[in-house]
Design brief:
This protein is mostly beta strands.
Length: 168
């Protein structure tokens, strides 16, 4: 498991005084400020975050080292990572998306179906994007108890009972 988990992203500048538009990926969106310092993906930069107000699709925030609109705009698209040790422990049936990516997906008979490429959510629940074994195409499988009865992080695998025809 990775030592860092993506908890948000900078969506650009908010105003002209160096504030940023902040998208939070945490269960309680305002909690992102509790996990500082946050790091860029490569770990080269770290930021402290202070949320100033809620705005459409996120927050307006101040981050350390940014005092102008141009500096804030230059960080657009930067994903923000928190140290895993700062994040709350999860119940047995919940997982951080970062922990699912890369897991092998096997059917209930033990046949390898592919590997989790990404976890997506378009509003109706989480979907596992599974890259089919031996190919470059992917399928979206619902991440529900019915379709994914077992997630074994220690063994690096998911046992799936996908809807009929999904992997054909």
């Amino acid at each position: 498991m990775s030592e860092h988990v993506c908890v948000g992203a900078i969506a650009g500048a908010f105003g002209v005084r160096g504030e940023i538009r902040l998208k939070s990926f945490t269960a309680n969106p305002q909690d992102i400020a509790n996990y500082t310092p946050l790091f860029s993906e490569d770990g080269a930069r770290s930021f402290s975050v202070t949320i100033t107000r809620q705005i459409n699709n996120g927050f307006s925030a101040r981050i350390s080292g940014v005092s102008t609109k141009e500096e804030a705009d230059a960080l657009r698209g930067t994903q923000l990572y928190a140290d895993r040790r700062q994040l709350p422990s999860l119940p047995d049936d919940e997982f951080y998306h970062a922990d699912l990516i890369g897991l092998n997906v096997l059917d209930t008979g033990g046949t390898e179906l592919g590997r989790v490429k990404a976890v997506q959510n378009h509003g109706a629940g989480d979907l596992l994007e599974v890259q089919i074994k031996g190919g470059s195409s992917t399928v979206l499988m619902p991440f529900t108890r019915a379709a994914v009865p077992t997630v074994d992080l220690a063994s690096g695998r998911i046992i799936a009972d996908p809807p009929e025809g999904l992997f054909e």
